[in-house]
Design goal:
single chain; 368 residues; alpha/beta; two-stranded parallel sheet; 32% helix; disordered C terminus; binds S-adenosyl-L-homocysteine
């Protein structure tokens, strides 16, 4: 009878402390962990054989005790406006989507933290599939890894991604531990090396985890507010029944206390006739009056079977002007990538059949 094979450790997705513990447990010095990190995340080399500065003897042992597993790249799409979307197929069968939004002076990658989502926000298409499962830290950072690989290969840019936002599928704070590990890898100099405040967690307002987040890592925070009072927010963002606006705003106040220069971005989806009146704007301005805040108005992105419509550009402008008159900083999110269903709230973990294009059809080079 053969011995059961021990489950080998996936080194991809371990943060620095965990990787050091791993190499120690095999009698190796801490700097081996640093070497492994550089190969995995900076040189994007996944085969132990090719990690030439790791001692030959350890390299020979590694395949017996560890492996490097990433999701499979299933499809990549390129929008007319330069936005890109990748669909990654997970070992467990599910799929996740990642979106890259290039701008003049920065490149933002929007990543997913869960397959589906449990929170059931009324205007979000991801909600329709419910929560399938949490992503592992490996699956979360693999989105950044694949995106960088494509962009470096294709655009030849050294650092194509300056910002990472957890605004894809899922509620990041509902998958807390894996998201924290992922953030550590994103910000580690030997990992993806992103500036701390250029990693943004977006939450619908899981208040207890907002406090933990601020204690555990240093990241920017965006809060999906979408309504200025509890009656309306209870309908649009049902988690509000558990953590009402007063609790949420208090948690936001605590979050920004660590740093006088810090502000929170409040996301506000513009739904025609639902939350976009002048009164709503005045109420929102009163709510945020004493907060270090920026408001990001998001024109609603429709999806099949939704009961909502996008506010008109004139309405959005009038709403924004009321906020500005009340001394709030306001930006309106430009809709990007809607021709490939890559806009906010349109990520559902499948390749949209309408515009489905396989990898081979598009000018994105993908190494095997
Ligand atoms: N669960 C997290 C992050 C994912 S959604 C959160 O709630 O913040 C990222 C942003 O897109 C959120 O502000 C979300 O409310 C918004 N969004 C969701 N569906 C949308 C839609 N159909 N149109 C525009 N924005 C949407």
């Amino acid at each position: 009878m053969s011995n059961p094979v021990a489950q080998s450790v996936n080194l991809f997705g371990l943060d620095r402390a965990a990787l050091e513990a791993f190499v120690h447990s095999h009698g190796e010095p801490a700097f081996r962990a640093r070497q492994l990190m550089q190969w995995l995340y900076q040189k994007r080399v996944t085969s132990f054989e090719d990690m030439t500065d790791v001692s030959k003897s350890f390299r020979a042992r590694l395949p017996g005790i560890a492996d490097v597993r990433l999701p499979a790249l299933e499809a990549a799409q390129l929008s007319a406006d330069g936005t890109r979307k990748w669909v990654l197929r997970l070992e467990s069968g599910g799929a996740i989507e990642t979106v890259y939004i290039p701008e003049a002076n920065r490149g933002t990658l929007c990543i997913s933290s869960q397959v589906g989502c449990a929170l059931d926000c009324a205007f979000c298409s991801t909600a329709q599939q419910g929560l399938q499962r949490n992503l592992t830290a490996a699956e979360i950072v693999s989105q950044v890894w694949f995106a960088i690989r494509t962009l470096v290969d294709e655009l030849g840019k050294e650092r194509p991604i300056s910002n990472v936002v957890f605004m894809g599928m899922g509620e990041p704070l509902a998958n807390y531990n894996q998201v924290i590990t992922a953030i550590r890898l994103l910000q580690d100099d030997l990992g993806f090396g992103l500036s701390k405040r250029r990693v943004t967690v977006s939450t619908s307002g899981l208040v207890p985890f907002m406090d933990r987040l601020s204690a555990d890592v240093d990241t920017a925070l965006a809060v999906s507010l979408h309504a200025p009072n509890d009656a309306l927010r209870n309908e649009l963002v049902p988690i509000n029944r558990k953590y009402p606006i007063a609790d949420l705003i208090a948690a936001c106040g605590r979050y920004t206390q660590r740093d006088r220069k810090m502000h929170i971005v409040y996301e506000y989806v513009m739904l025609d006739g639902v939350n976009d009146s002048d009164d709503n704007a005045r109420e929102l301005a009163r709510l945020l009056r004493h907060m270090p805040a920026k408001v990001n108005l998001i024109p609603f992105n429709p999806f099949p079977q939704t009961r909502f419509r996008r506010s008109s550009p004139e309405r959005i402008e009038a709403f924004a002007n009321i906020l500005r008159r009340n001394k709030l900083m306001v930006t309106t999110r430009r809709t990007r990538g809607d021709d490939i269903d890559a806009a906010c709230g349109q990520l559902v973990g499948r390749v949209a059949s309408r515009q489905q294009r396989r990898l081979s059809d598009i000018p994105v080079r993908v190494a095997p």
